[in-house]
Amino acid sequence: QGQFVESGGGLVQSGGSVRLSCRGLIEAFKLAPVGWYRQAPGFERELVAHIVHGTTNYADSVKGRFTITRDSAQNTVYLQMNKLKPEDAAVYYCNVVPPNSVYWGQGTQVFVSS
């Protein structure tokens, strides 16, 4: 059973925005490096953004468009996604970095209409 609960996905128009939320179910996640990953059909799961102690890092494909933030008190990590492109469509997951296979949740699906 996963230890992260993702939400916020849906259908978004190309160029639009959406914010994803990820709630951790383990207290230790509050201090751990946590990232957002995504997996599109036919592609491997990839890390798109992660945050550790306030420092953020992004994949080149999302840099300048996505922003990862964290509310440690709520054990929640957010991903603000702006200027969405059709190639951003995927199932988005969060996990620690590097990922732990037992922590994967169900993810949240993002569809981008062109």
Class derived from helix and strand content: mainly beta
From the spread of the alpha carbons, the general shape counts as globular
Number of contiguous helices = 0
What integer value in Å does the Rg equal? Answer: 13 Å
**Main β-sheet description:** 6 strands, mixed
Q: pLDDT below 50 for ≥5 consecutive residues: which ranges?
A: none
Order of helices and strands: EEEEEEEEEE
Give the fraction of residues assigned to helices.
Answer: under 10%
Mean pLDDT: 96
Euclidean distance between termini CA atoms: 35 Å
Number of strands: 10
Reading side by side through the largest sheet, how are the strands ordered? 2-10-9-4-5-6
Would you write up a description of this structure?
By secondary structure, the protein is mainly β. Helices cover 0% and strands 50% of the residues. It contains no helices and ten strands. The chain has strands at 4-7, 10-13, 18-24, 34-39, 46-52, 55-58, 66-71, 76-81, 90-96, 108-113. A hairpin with a 4-residue loop joins strand 7 (66-71) and strand 8 (76-81).
Question: What descriptive keywords fit this protein?
Answer:
6-stranded mixed β-sheet; 114 residues; mainly beta; 0% helix
